[in-house]
Design a protein that fits this description.
single chain; 131 residues; alpha/beta; Immunoglobulin-like; four-stranded mixed beta sheet; globular
C-alpha cells in the first residue's frame, strides 16, 4: 500500500511540473513575450561618446536627416535631453542609458539644438547644429 501511495504522489508531482497543457490540433503554442521594437536609422549616423562626465564631441555639425547616436562609455547610467530654447519644443529625451548602451535620434529639421545630461549639471550644455 505504501508503494502505491508513493507512485500516485510521483505521478501527481510529475503532472504539475510538466505543465499539463494541450494545444488544439494544428495550432502552435506561443509564449506571450513582449515584442521589442528597435528603430534602426536608415540614413547617415554621427556618434557622440558619453565619457568623463561630458559628451565628445561637445559640438557636432550634421546634415538634415542625419541620426546622432549617443554611446554611454561610462560605468553609470546617463541621460540625454534636448534643452529647447523658447521657440522650440523638446524633441528628445533618452530616458536612462545604461553603461555600454546607446540612444539614437534622427534630426529632421535644420537648426541649433542644445542638449545635456541633468546628472552632469553645472549648466553645461552641448550642441547639435543641423544644416
Amino acid at each position: 500500500m505504501k508503494g502505491y501511495l508513493i507512485f500516485i504522489c510521483l505521478i501527481i508531482c510529475g503532472s504539475l511540473i510538466s505543465g499539463c497543457t494541450t494545444s488544439a490540433p494544428g495550432s502552435k503554442a506561443t509564449a506571450s513575450m513582449p515584442q521589442v521594437t528597435t528603430v534602426v536609422p536608415t540614413g547617415p549616423t554621427a556618434i557622440v561618446e558619453i565619457r568623463a562626465r561630458s559628451f565628445d564631441p561637445s559640438t557636432i555639425t550634421i546634415k538634415e536627416g542625419t541620426s546622432v547616436t549617443w554611446k554611454n562609455e561610462e560605468t553609470i547610467v546617463r541621460h540625454v535631453v534636448h534643452l529647447p530654447d523658447v521657440r522650440q519644443t523638446q524633441l528628445f529625451d533618452s530616458g536612462p542609458i545604461s553603461p555600454m548602451e546607446s540612444y539614437t535620434y534622427t534630426f529632421s529639421e535644420k537648426g541649433r539644438f542644445n542638449y545635456g545630461d541633468p546628472q552632469i549639471g553645472g549648466g553645461r550644455t552641448y550642441l547639435v547644429i543641423v544644416e
